[in-house]
Design a protein that fits this description.
By secondary structure, the protein is an alpha+beta fold. Helix content is about 45%, strand content about 15%. β5 and β6 form a beta hairpin. The longest helix is centred in the first third of the chain and has 19 residues.
Length: about 375
Amino acid sequence: MVTSKREQYDDVTTRLLAWYGRARRDLPWRRTRDPYRIWLAEVMLQQTRVDTVVPYYERFVAAFPTIEALAAADVDDVLALWVGLGYYRRARHFHAAAQQVVADHGGVVPHEPKAMLALPGVGRYTAGAVLSIAYGLPMPIVDGNVERVLCRLFALRGNPKKGAARKRLWALAESLVPEEGAGDFNQAMMDFGATVCTPKSPGCGACPLAALCEARRSGRQLELPAMPKRKAVPHYDVGVGIVWRRGKVLITKRPADAMLGGLWEFPGGKREDGESLAETVRREVKEELGLDVAVGELVGVCKHAYSHFRVTLHAYACRSARGRPRPTAADAYRWVRVGELGSYAFPAGSVKIIRALADSVVTR
């Protein structure tokens, strides 16, 4: 029997909602209708696994239980709670958006798409997720999980991240989302992609959409989505200077518009061709701060992976000549004692160095 597109879409929606009623995951942000907390969860979940997000979410809402509390907080305190979660621009945008909500909307998260999309860091996905889950608006979402489900279900060709394929995905998501229960449906799509229609080993045998899935019918479920081959991830050796003076070490604050913006770090940078790591440290400290340093012993080595590259950090103890630092690529600098470093927000790689520093037997 031939069915219409509308009937097909309604069948998908009905089956997914029934599945979600049985299999929904119990997550802390699903125990509330507070749009602020739902929004926080959606921001944290971008490019981050659920099991990683849960403890960060719980610590964050304990520190900033309301959007007013977040708006009144210092951005350094916000970043400190984000350390290790990555993609720190999300935290800065969320903090700025909270301030805008308090200033322009009386502390009430907007329930109109145009107003929501006008907030810092809010795009089509975030607006759709928050407004559908918190307010019940029939707005679609497309994240990595939804993308994979739709590409398989409808056997979509082309790179789902770009061009016509991307537009087709959003059009399908909009056609599927129901007028009633939009929030549950969107969460069902995300849960379904995360637990059943997984990237490498989809659970087709237990799939409630198996009879409707065009990719399964043609045996192409492992071929879709048609993602381009990933490029090799580059690796960099980085020399880091633990610059001592009068029992304190020198730290600098990254510019707000830079990668890891707003976080504190030790001066240093990538090793250039033909350069020893000690030479890297000496050159970088001079270029960044105008200080001449004597590079001493190795304090620690640690590896860290970012989204598009990997680094090995080599931290060296240094002694600084007299003179005031003149930062050329930092918003601020401070001399602090090792025991005070925990009060500053550092990226995860630098946190590893701090641990090595604390364990070091080097005396100053």
